[in-house]
């Protein structure tokens, strides 16, 4: 499973990076979204994989931490999801504002040939 | 009891005020301004008090004058801890010192250019102050995001093609950098199991060898994110355009934004790769020195190649960043505390001076007509059906002898940035150069190269700025611009502060010297974080005493 | 003590005067003159008071602590040399002040002029009396800066601006070199105290840095003293008002360089390197300056080059460095100051009264202004070295040194010949000055009719010429003693008294002098015509102009080169910047891991699950597909992105993170809606961009593909390396163990978010709020591209059904979903602490509820029925969260300390009541506010566009009607 | 009471949903009731008109008919899908003029059509009242036309109008 | 020892059956979705998953968790209800969007009589 | 015995659902029209939702339920937005 997830992270990242380097702002924004999936999975994977044992505790009694998934990366991902959502939204709005003001959707506000 | 919570006040005050102002109607700008001013002034007062505390030592968790604050009363390294040491306190004061003039300046017109300026401004301060205070890596990320988000908003404040285009680049690059930040932080957690900086500093010496490369990679990736913010070459090409495009008071605040990146690098590298870093000690110092040098060189070329003052000011931000980065590298390589002390002193001066310069740009380039012309320039033809465009009379009085006052202020900024006497730029450069040339442990070529760059950057600043200044003040036949007292008073205030910093250089250097010493003393930091007692664990009699 | 304070007063007096002058009204001509003059006179009086001590060889000291830890103090030190020089500066200052009162026109603000002049005087005096080398540099730079302002005083003229800038850049460059030299000297000598450094000559000369120090030091001194090849700034500086030229550019500032040479000759001098560079450059400057001076047509230009030449002479003497040479140098400094100041003033008078300084136009002025002419002739004679005038004496001493002093080098042997060439030329140009200006036919076509100036404008000249005469005739009685004292303070107390006499008998120097006078006269007589009609420089040399070379160099070095370099190493486009960022991150990661990245010996792997793998093939294909389609098929890319997102959610759920899966899904929905809202405003792209098929584009794409693949491989291998490693002991374990007992919740992730690390969440909601505000603010100024204003094609098609028709049935169900989502939101909110959910999920759920309503009908319909004030929600949310956090203070706990307990409510039973819940309400409200604000702000743009269309249609219809 | 519970049916279903999601307890009941109040208000803000159900008794009949239909068409569609390519299936569009105009009734009809595999709601025009349904198996076109206009539509009209 | 082993056989068989049925229906639907040629045909395929596919998995899940928890677990049916409620919205809107697009393009996917929107005065056509 | 039956059934269901996801995934990629992609995404959501439930049963945990519910209630929102965009050229007007 670790191999699959690593590959997934790799493919998401590669697609994201490729798009990040493209000239159209919409490509960049899709790239950022893909990258944020990749990064979220990466953060998540830093706690190692634990299937079927969410960090939800019994009410009382001894807790053996090794039986549960590490909650910290999950909490980090949650925060990261929210923040990347917000910034993606912002980027989107700047993208359309830039398109409106410059007349093009090129990230530089002008076509390459110009 | 109150003093115990004073550490968090620089974060909470702007937060509360920023949130509170959301409940106001957007047109109640007067009230918002005064609220903001009160908030910022309170931050300054508290920051000064915290500096005093950092100097003499606080009453809780006293470790060489450091104070600690366990958020949610959770012990380190589990909860988030705020750490107030000399460096943090100093940065807080610097932030507030820059914020007040910028705020007052904005009152003259920029504050009206779009909705919720004052809230965004306060949130920017939340981010800055939080980034300086936190002792937790992920929390640092959160505060970075706060200050970045606010800076996006402020950069775009006023809209217009130039700003939006610059904003697009600024945001795209910073988003990418934030992703790197996340990768770095999580990788650190994956290899060490902690997010607490002090804990990390403790763990790094005894790390198993096979994990060390991963930790190095983590911090290197993290450093790339910081370097983007610090404006380090080759990750800084966005910076001049963005800073130039920003509204004047925002540009002034941006002067300190790069320093947050520098701060993070300084803090983290000294903690993790300082003398106590075991096999990792000194990691990355060489590259940091090189990057610092390239950044200074880039800034130097940029200043010379710039046509407008805004771009020049932005490049002088780069010079100041590069200088401190380079010195951080030297300090990390074992260069000692003296040069770090000088760099910190220099940083204070250069931040304030670039801030003042940003505030000067707009009045200097204003051909005629004051704020009204500015409004006309930035207002878009489409969609002005909104309330924020109503005409308000200019606030405040126009100043007499405009050109002389502006010219004088500009000249002083130039003197400061070029490192000419008698302003802190000069003292700061001497304070860096003296230990650099005295230091024999460092590679001589690098040290001398750095000295040469420091001197040359001063000369380049002088040449470039003189060119612009002469053009603006001497070779211009346009009628005298109308400049409001509200716009020039902040600049004069900053210059007075600069004068004081120079005059009181000995006191300042003693403080920064202590700061440099504390930065080298990783053990005290780490000890203090872990020794801080929880409020719940404090014995009752002790509580009664407080 | 009184002396100490008086000394400090002396140092501060000019600056204080300057500040007072700044406050005077521009019309206060008389008052400002009196103030400046008296201030200088007061300074002189103080100096006079110090004379007895100075005579005894005392060294006066005073100091103000500034930055002692850097060895940088405002330490002052007055010895004979400094005393003499300071007195000279202040005395000429007084005369210049008087002169300027009449010279400056009514349009000029005299107080401001004097303020600059006084500040300059203070700085100059500071150089002379500094006892700390760093303090000296401070004043040194200050003189550069003040002189810049003074040269540019008449900044309306381009010449003044250029001259000022050139002077500033050259002298500041020198100043920075000097600073470095001083820092190195301080390091070598172990102190920045001038006295200490002057005593450490042997150590300095033996130090490996000596060469570098000397070079930097000389750069400082030479630039200031306009030595070849930095001499050109001085003629350019002649655009300054004449009082400035007389003061700064003849008597004082330019002498700072030679002052430094003389002052530091004990510390740095005495080596061959010193001799060759200093004397060599001095001699070159002496001859070159004199040669050019002869050819200048501008009166001030002639005087400027003459000054350069004389400075060369002094420099050469300092290079020789023997006791007598030093004494001669000091003596010539004084003499030159006196006659050159008077000449400049005379030139100023001529300019002032005739309106021109061009010697080709001036002629026969003796008749209309006999007194001025007489004064100028005497002063010029002093400059030429005519006996019985002061210039003669010091020049004789120079010639004597050239002839009698030996160190056996070739330069030493050449000195007499070089000296005689210089002297000859100086006679020639002095003669030219006298002959062309005062004699010959009286000029007729001058801009003004010449006559004598006001008496007080002439008084300073008269006084100075008088001094020329007195010193020339009675040197021993007048300056002899003090020059000896000054020299002794430089070279040491062992110096025997040197008697300056007019007559040393017929000796080589006298013969050389006479030869010079004769040959000089001859040269002028022979070439007068040619000079008057020729170019402004000697044969061939006039083509090589320092200024032009400088301009060329400056332009290349400080404009073209930086721009070229920046063009090469930087970019304003986004793509290369992002590429650099990715590459940098890759590079640092690879560098850190190179050879060190190891996988665990026993990989910690979980059993393969085909379902998971199958779904990731879909996810990966979607990701790649999105990358593939994002340019030409945005909509498809968006759907593909959704596919990748849902598989990501699945992964979170699979590996035990229900909270993440839920949150990711919710965010996914909102993000899709947002992106779709944005899609409306992007340009339609139906056909391929032709450039995309060209080779460069293909190369770019392949390069980026390689970067992307390498980046993906890198991050995948790091992820794998960590995932397959054994678990390190981490803080997560503590959270698992303590969430229930300490945090009062069973969902550890949620307890972390609202309690253990609530501060992160606190920041996170701030980010959301800020972004909401930014989006809102930016969109209020939104201006769509012209082609986007029109309604989308779908709506303008002939047969398109109305939106109400389209949504008639779907909207019913969508409205039904509203209460369901509100319930669901409540569900997520209340169970968050124990089970997956929480304030954020609840908030987004509610926001999606609103979103559905907006989709189900239209903005106007929804907003007529429900009013959401999202900014208020945000405000209350943030305030709620922060006040909950601060509530802990009341109980003496730190910010955000949570409190959880079970409250027993009758019938209902145990109900959990945690402050974390209150905090979560804040989170909830902020999230609702921010998300709704963003959605609505973007959505409103379509409304605005359609409203605009409606208005236009209405207007068009009205027009038609 | 009608101010407090503008839509009693809705409120009850929401509370029921709430209790399905949570476990039954008095506390949850109270919480759910309060929430359903809020949700009800929100709904009534959007829809001030109260949809009224006229004949409750028809509802179970509708349910049973639908349940059987769903099973029947699931089987039929599955069979068709499994033999796709060999069964000579032809799909078809049918146009059904509807007399029912109540939006809620139409929404329920759309649920019915959708839940029944083999029929897909494609277009309903408010101006003509014509419903276009896509039929997976064209051979059944007549049947579905019949079912919709003669069975479901009258039942819905009974319930809603 | 997996939690599945604790389920008695009489319950395991229906649970397994329903799970099998739901998954199979979904798979068949997906298969059809991938294979069918016309969009309007494909519109039917997912309804297998959203009607009995979902329902049977719901039933299975409810049976199983009710046994494990020892009480009636019926929250699955909220999912079922919501699927029933929301699927029509998507399909209706997509179907009509497709119809409009096909009409605009005069696509072959539509039979001739579908190319024109029925007008109020038009007599309803029948196929 | 019952464990084995259930394991087999659930294992089969998992693979069948994942396969279903793959099959609809091909439509997301292939299209050919935008409406096909949207429909496919919607179906993918349903497959994943069922997979959540099945996996939850397999692991004997109820923690997959929320995610499944979110899909069931809010999955349609993206599809609806996409569909409306196809129909109107904008999502909110
Ligand atoms: Na664990
Ligand atoms: Na159906």
Automatic annotation (TrEMBL), chain A:
<keyword id="KW-0472">Membrane</keyword>
<keyword id="KW-1003">Cell membrane</keyword>
<feature type="transmembrane region" description="Helical">
    <location>
        <begin position="75"/>
        <end position="97"/>
    </location>
</feature>
<feature type="transmembrane region" description="Helical">
    <location>
        <begin position="28"/>
        <end position="47"/>
    </location>
</feature>
<dbReference type="InterPro" id="IPR050601">
    <property type="entry name" value="CPA3_antiporter_subunitC"/>
</dbReference>
<keyword id="KW-1133">Transmembrane helix</keyword>
<dbReference type="Pfam" id="PF00420">
    <property type="entry name" value="Oxidored_q2"/>
</dbReference>
<keyword id="KW-0812">Transmembrane</keyword>
<protein>
    <submittedName>
        <fullName>Na+/H+ antiporter subunit C</fullName>
    </submittedName>
</protein>
<dbReference type="InterPro" id="IPR039428">
    <property type="entry name" value="NUOK/Mnh_C1-like"/>
</dbReference>
<feature type="transmembrane region" description="Helical">
    <location>
        <begin position="6"/>
        <end position="21"/>
    </location>
</feature>
<comment type="similarity">
    <text>Belongs to the CPA3 antiporters (TC 2.A.63) subunit C family.</text>
</comment>
UniProtKB/TrEMBL annotation, chain D:
<dbReference type="InterPro" id="IPR002758">
    <property type="entry name" value="Cation_antiport_E"/>
</dbReference>
<keyword id="KW-1133">Transmembrane helix</keyword>
<dbReference type="Pfam" id="PF01899">
    <property type="entry name" value="MNHE"/>
</dbReference>
<keyword id="KW-1003">Cell membrane</keyword>
<comment type="similarity">
    <text>Belongs to the CPA3 antiporters (TC 2.A.63) subunit E family.</text>
</comment>
<keyword id="KW-0812">Transmembrane</keyword>
<feature type="transmembrane region" description="Helical">
    <location>
        <begin position="27"/>
        <end position="46"/>
    </location>
</feature>
<keyword id="KW-0472">Membrane</keyword>
<protein>
    <submittedName>
        <fullName>Cation:proton antiporter</fullName>
    </submittedName>
</protein>
TrEMBL record, chain E:
<keyword id="KW-1133">Transmembrane helix</keyword>
<dbReference type="InterPro" id="IPR005133">
    <property type="entry name" value="PhaG_MnhG_YufB"/>
</dbReference>
<keyword id="KW-0472">Membrane</keyword>
<feature type="transmembrane region" description="Helical">
    <location>
        <begin position="73"/>
        <end position="94"/>
    </location>
</feature>
<feature type="region of interest" description="Disordered">
    <location>
        <begin position="108"/>
        <end position="127"/>
    </location>
</feature>
<feature type="transmembrane region" description="Helical">
    <location>
        <begin position="45"/>
        <end position="67"/>
    </location>
</feature>
<protein>
    <submittedName>
        <fullName>Cation:proton antiporter</fullName>
    </submittedName>
</protein>
<dbReference type="Pfam" id="PF03334">
    <property type="entry name" value="PhaG_MnhG_YufB"/>
</dbReference>
<feature type="compositionally biased region" description="Basic and acidic residues">
    <location>
        <begin position="108"/>
        <end position="120"/>
    </location>
</feature>
<keyword id="KW-0812">Transmembrane</keyword>
<feature type="transmembrane region" description="Helical">
    <location>
        <begin position="6"/>
        <end position="33"/>
    </location>
</feature>
UniProtKB/TrEMBL annotation, chain F:
<feature type="transmembrane region" description="Helical">
    <location>
        <begin position="38"/>
        <end position="57"/>
    </location>
</feature>
<feature type="transmembrane region" description="Helical">
    <location>
        <begin position="63"/>
        <end position="87"/>
    </location>
</feature>
<keyword id="KW-1003">Cell membrane</keyword>
<protein>
    <submittedName>
        <fullName>K+/H+ antiporter subunit F</fullName>
    </submittedName>
</protein>
<dbReference type="InterPro" id="IPR007208">
    <property type="entry name" value="MrpF/PhaF-like"/>
</dbReference>
<keyword id="KW-0812">Transmembrane</keyword>
<dbReference type="Pfam" id="PF04066">
    <property type="entry name" value="MrpF_PhaF"/>
</dbReference>
<feature type="transmembrane region" description="Helical">
    <location>
        <begin position="6"/>
        <end position="26"/>
    </location>
</feature>
<comment type="similarity">
    <text>Belongs to the CPA3 antiporters (TC 2.A.63) subunit F family.</text>
</comment>
<keyword id="KW-0472">Membrane</keyword>
<keyword id="KW-1133">Transmembrane helix</keyword>
<keyword id="KW-0813">Transport</keyword>
């Amino acid at each position: 499973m670790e191999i699959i997830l690593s590959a997934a992270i790799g493919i998401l990242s590669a697609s994201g990076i490729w798009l990040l380097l493209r000239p159209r702002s919409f490509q960049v924004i899709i790239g950022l979204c893909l990258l944020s999936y990749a990064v979220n999975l990466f953060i998540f994977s830093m706690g190692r994989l634990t299937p079927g044992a969410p960090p939800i505790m019994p009410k009382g009694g001894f807790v053996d931490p090794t039986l549960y998934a590490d909650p910290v990366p999950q909490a980090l991902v949650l925060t990261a999801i929210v923040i990347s959502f917000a910034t993606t939204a912002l980027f989107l709005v700047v993208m359309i504002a830039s398109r409106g003001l410059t007349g093009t959707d090129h990230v530089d506000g002008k076509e390459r040939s110009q | 009891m109150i003093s115990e919570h004073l550490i968090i006040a620089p974060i909470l005050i702007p937060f509360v005020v920023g949130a509170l102002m959301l409940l106001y109607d957007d047109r109640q700008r007067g009230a918002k301004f005064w609220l903001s001013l009160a908030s910022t002034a309170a931050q300054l007062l508290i920051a000064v008090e915290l500096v005093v505390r950092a100097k003499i030592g606080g009453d809780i968790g006293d470790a060489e004058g450091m104070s600690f604050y366990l958020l949610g009363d959770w012990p380190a390294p589990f909860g988030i801890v705020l750490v107030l040491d000399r460096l943090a306190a100093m940065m807080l004061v610097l932030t507030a010192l820059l914020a007040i003039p910028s705020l007052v300046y904005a009152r003259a017109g920029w504050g009206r250019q779009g909705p919720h300026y004052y809230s965004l401004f306060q949130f920017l301060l939340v981010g800055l102050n939080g980034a300086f205070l936190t002792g937790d890596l992920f929390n640092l990320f959160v505060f970075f995001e706060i200050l970045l988000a606010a800076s996006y908003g402020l950069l775009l404040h006023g809209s217009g093609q130039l700003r939006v285009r610059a904003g697009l680049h600024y945001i795209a690059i910073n988003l990418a950098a934030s992703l790197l930040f996340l990768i770095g932080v999580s990788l650190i957690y994956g290899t060490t199991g902690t997010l607490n900086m002090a804990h990390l500093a403790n763990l790094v010496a005894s790390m198993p060898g096979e994990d060390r490369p991963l930790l190095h990679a983590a911090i290197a990736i993290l450093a790339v994110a910081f370097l983007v913010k610090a404006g380090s070459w080759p990750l800084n090409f966005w910076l001049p355009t963005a800073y130039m495009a920003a509204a004047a008071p925002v540009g002034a605040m941006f002067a300190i934004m790069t320093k947050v990146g520098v701060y993070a690098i300084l803090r983290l590298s000294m903690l993790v790769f300082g003398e106590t870093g075991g096999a990792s000690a000194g990691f990355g110092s060489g590259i940091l020195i090189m990057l610092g040098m390239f950044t200074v060189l880039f800034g130097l070329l940029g200043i010379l190649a710039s046509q407008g003052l805004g771009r020049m000011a932005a490049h002088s931000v780069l010079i100041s960043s590069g200088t401190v980065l380079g010195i951080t590298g030297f300090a990390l390589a074992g260069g000692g505390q003296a040069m770090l002390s000088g760099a910190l002193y220099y940083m204070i001066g250069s931040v304030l001076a670039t801030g003042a310069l940003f505030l000067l740009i707009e009045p200097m380039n204003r051909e005629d007509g004051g704020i009204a012309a500015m409004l006309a320039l930035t207002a878009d033809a489409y969609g002005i059906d909104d309330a924020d465009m109503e005409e308000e009379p200019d606030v405040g009085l126009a100043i007499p002898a405009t050109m002389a006052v502006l010219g004088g202020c500009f000249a002083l900024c130039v003197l400061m940035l070029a490192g000419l006497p008698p302003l802190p730029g000069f003292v700061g450069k001497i304070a860096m150069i003296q230990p650099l040339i005295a230091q024999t442990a460092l590679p001589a070529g690098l040290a001398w190269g750095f000295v040469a760059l420091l001197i040359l950057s001063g000369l380049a600043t002088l040449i470039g700025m003189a060119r612009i200044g002469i053009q603006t003040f001497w070779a211009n036949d346009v009628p005298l611009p109308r400049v409001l007292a509200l716009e020039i008073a902040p600049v004069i205030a900053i210059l007075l502060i600069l004068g004081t910093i120079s005059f009181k250089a000995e006191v300042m250097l003693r403080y920064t010297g202590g700061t440099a010493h504390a930065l080298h003393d990783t053990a005290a930091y780490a000890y203090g974080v872990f020794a801080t007692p929880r409020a719940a664990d404090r014995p009752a009699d002790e509580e009664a005493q407080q | 003590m009184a002396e100490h304070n008086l000394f400090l007063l002396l140092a501060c007096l000019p600056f204080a005067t300057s500040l007072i002058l700044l406050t005077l009204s521009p019309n206060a001509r008389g008052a400002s003159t009196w103030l400046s003059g008296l201030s200088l006179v007061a300074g002189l009086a103080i100096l006079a008071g110090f004379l007895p001590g100075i005579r005894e060889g005392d060294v006066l000291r005073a100091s103000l602590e500034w930055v002692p830890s850097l060895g940088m103090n405002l330490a002052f030190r007055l010895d004979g040399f400094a005393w003499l020089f300071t007195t000279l500066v202040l005395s000429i200052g007084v005369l210049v002040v008087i002169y300027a009162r009449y010279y400056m026109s009514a349009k000029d603000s005299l107080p401001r002029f004097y303020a600059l002049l006084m500040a300059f005087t203070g700085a100059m005096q500071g150089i002379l009396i500094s006892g700390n080398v760093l303090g000296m540099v401070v004043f040194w730079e200050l003189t550069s800066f003040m002189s810049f302002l003074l040269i540019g005083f008449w900044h309306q003229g381009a010449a003044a601006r250029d001259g000022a800038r050139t002077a500033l850049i050259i002298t500041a460059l020198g100043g920075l070199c000097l600073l470095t030299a001083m820092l190195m000297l301080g390091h070598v000598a172990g102190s920045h105290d001038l006295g200490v450094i002057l005593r450490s000559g042997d150590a300095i000369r033996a130090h490996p840095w000596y060469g570098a120090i000397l070079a930097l030091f000389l750069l400082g001194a030479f630039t200031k003293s306009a030595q070849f090849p930095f001499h050109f700034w001085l003629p350019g500086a002649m655009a300054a008002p004449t009082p400035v030229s007389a003061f700064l550019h003849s008597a004082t500032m330019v002498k700072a360089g030679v002052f430094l040479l003389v002052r530091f000759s004990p510390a740095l001098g005495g080596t061959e390197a010193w001799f060759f560079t200093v004397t060599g450059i001095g001699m070159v400057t002496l001859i070159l300056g004199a040669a050019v001076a002869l050819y200048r047509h501008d009166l001030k230009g002639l005087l400027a080059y003459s000054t350069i030449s004389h400075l060369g002479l002094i420099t050469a003497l300092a290079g020789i460095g023997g006791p007598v040479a030093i004494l001669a140098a000091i003596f010539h400094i004084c003499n030159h100051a006196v006659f050159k100041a008077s000449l400049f003033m005379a030139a100023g008078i001529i300019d002032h009264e005739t309106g021109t300084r061009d010697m080709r136009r001036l002629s026969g002025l003796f008749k209309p202004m006999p007194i001025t002419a007489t004064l100028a002739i005497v002063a010029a004679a002093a400059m030429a070295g005519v006996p019985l005038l002061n210039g003669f004496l010091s020049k004789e001493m120079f010639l004597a040194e050239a002839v009698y002093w030996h160190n056996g080098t070739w330069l030493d042997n050449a000195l007499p010949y070089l000296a005689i060439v210089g002297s000859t030329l100086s006679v020639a140009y002095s003669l030219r000055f006298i002959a062309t200006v005062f004699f010959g036919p009286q000029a007729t076509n001058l801009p003004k009719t010449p006559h004598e100036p006001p008496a007080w404008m002439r008084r300073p000249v008269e006084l100075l010429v008088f001094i020329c005469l007195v010193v020339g005739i009675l040197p021993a009685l007048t300056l002899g003693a003090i020059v000896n004292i000054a020299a002794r303070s430089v070279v040491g107390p062992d110096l025997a008294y040197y008697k300056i006499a007019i007559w040393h008998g017929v000796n080589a120097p006298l013969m050389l002098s006479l030869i010079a006078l004769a040959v000089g006269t001859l040269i002028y007589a022979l070439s007068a015509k040619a000079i008057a009609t020729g170019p402004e420089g000697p044969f061939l040399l006039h083509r090589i102009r320092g200024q032009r070379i400088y301009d060329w160099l400056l332009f290349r070095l400080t404009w073209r080169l930086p721009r070229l370099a920046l063009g090469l190493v930087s970019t304003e486009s986004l793509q290369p910047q992002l590429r650099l960022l990715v590459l940098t991150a890759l590079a640092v990661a690879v560098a850190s891991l190179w050879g060190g990245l190891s996988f665990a010996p026993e990989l910690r792997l979980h059993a393969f699950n085909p379902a998971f793998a199958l779904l990731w093939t879909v996810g990966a294909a979607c990701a790649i597909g999105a990358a593939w389609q994002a340019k030409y098929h945005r909509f498809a890319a968006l759907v593909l992105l959704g596919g990748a997102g849902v598989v990501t959610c699945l992964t979170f759920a699979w590996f035990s993170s229900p909270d993440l899966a839920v949150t990711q899904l919710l965010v996914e929905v909102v993000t899709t809606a947002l992106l779709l809202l944005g899609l409306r405003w992007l340009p339609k792209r139906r056909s391929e961009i032709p450039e995309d098929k060209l080779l460069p584009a293909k190369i770019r794409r392949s390069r980026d593909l390689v970067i992307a693949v390498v980046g993906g491989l890198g991050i995948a291998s790091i992820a794998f390396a960590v995932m397959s490693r054994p678990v390190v002991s981490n803080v997560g374990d503590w959270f698992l163990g303590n969430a229930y007992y300490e945090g009062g919740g069973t969902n550890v992730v949620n307890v972390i978010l609202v309690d253990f690390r609530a501060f992160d969440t606190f920041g996170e909601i701030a980010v959301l709020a800020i972004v909401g505000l930014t989006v809102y603010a930016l969109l209020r100024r939104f201006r769509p591209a012209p082609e986007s204003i029109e309604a989308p094609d779908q709506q303008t098609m002939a047969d398109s059904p109305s939106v109400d028709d389209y949504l008639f049935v779907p909207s019913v169900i969508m409205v039904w979903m509203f209460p369901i989502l509100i319930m669901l939101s409540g569900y997520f909110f209340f169970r968050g602490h124990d089970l997956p959910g929480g304030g954020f999920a609840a908030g987004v759920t509610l926001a999606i509820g609103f979103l559905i309503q907006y989709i189900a009908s239209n903005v106007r319909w929804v907003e007529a029925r429900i009013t959401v004030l999202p900014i208020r929600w945000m405000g209350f949310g943030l305030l709620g969260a922060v006040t909950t956090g601060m509530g802990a203070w009341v109980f003496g706990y730190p910010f955000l300390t949570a409190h959880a307990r079970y409250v027993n409510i009758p019938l209902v039973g145990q109900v959990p009541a945690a402050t974390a819940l209150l905090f979560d309400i804040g989170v909830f409200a902020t999230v609702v506010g921010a998300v709704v604000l963003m959605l609505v702000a973007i959505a409103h743009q379509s409304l605005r566009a359609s409203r605009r269309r409606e208005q236009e249609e209405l207007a068009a219809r009205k027009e038609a009607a | 009471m009608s101010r407090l519970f503008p839509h009693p049916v809705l409120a009850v279903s929401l509370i029921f949903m709430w209790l399905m999601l949570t476990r039954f307890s008095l506390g949850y009941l109270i919480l759910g009731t309060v929430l359903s109040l809020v949700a009800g208000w929100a709904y009534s803000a959007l829809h001030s008109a109260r949809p009224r159900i006229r004949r409750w008794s028809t509802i179970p009949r509708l349910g049973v008919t639908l349940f059987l239909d769903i099973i029947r068409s699931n089987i039929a569609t599955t069979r068709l899908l499994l033999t796709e390519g060999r069964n000579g299936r032809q799909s078809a569009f049918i146009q059904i003029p509807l007399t029912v105009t109540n939006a809620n009734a139409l929404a329920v009809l759309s649920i019915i059509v959708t839940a029944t595999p083999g029929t897909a709601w494609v277009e309903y025009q408010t101006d003509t009242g014509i419903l276009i349904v896509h039929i997976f198996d064209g051979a059944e076109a007549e049947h579905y036309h019949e079912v919709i206009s003669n069975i479901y539509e009258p039942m819905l009209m009974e319930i809603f109008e | 020892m997996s939690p599945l082993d604790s389920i008695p056989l009489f319950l395991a068989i229906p649970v397994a059956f329903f799970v099998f049925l739901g998954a199979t229906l979904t798979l068949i639907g997906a298969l059809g979705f991938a294979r069918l040629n016309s969009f309007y045909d494909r519109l039917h395929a997912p309804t297998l998953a959203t009607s009995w596919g979902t329902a049977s998995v719901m039933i299975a899940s409810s049976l199983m968790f009710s046994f494990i928890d020892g009480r009636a677990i019926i929250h699955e049916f909220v999912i079922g209800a919501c699927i029933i409620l929301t699927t029509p919205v998507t399909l209706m809107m997509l179907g009509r969007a497709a119809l409009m697009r096909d009409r605009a393009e005069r696509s072959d996917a539509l039979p001739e009589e579908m190319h024109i929107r029925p007008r109020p005065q038009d007599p309803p056509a029948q196929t | 015995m019952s464990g084995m039956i259930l394991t087999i059934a659930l294992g089969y269901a998992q693979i069948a659902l994942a396969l279903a996801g793959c099959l609809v995934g091909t439509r997301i990629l292939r299209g050919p029209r935008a409406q096909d992609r949207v429909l496919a995404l919607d179906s993918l959501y349903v497959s994943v939702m069922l997979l959540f439930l099945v996996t939850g049963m397999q692991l004997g945990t109820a923690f997959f339920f929320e995610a499944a519910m979110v899909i069931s209630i809010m999955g349609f929102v993206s599809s609806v937005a996409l569909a409306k965009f196809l129909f109107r050229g904008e999502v909110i007007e």
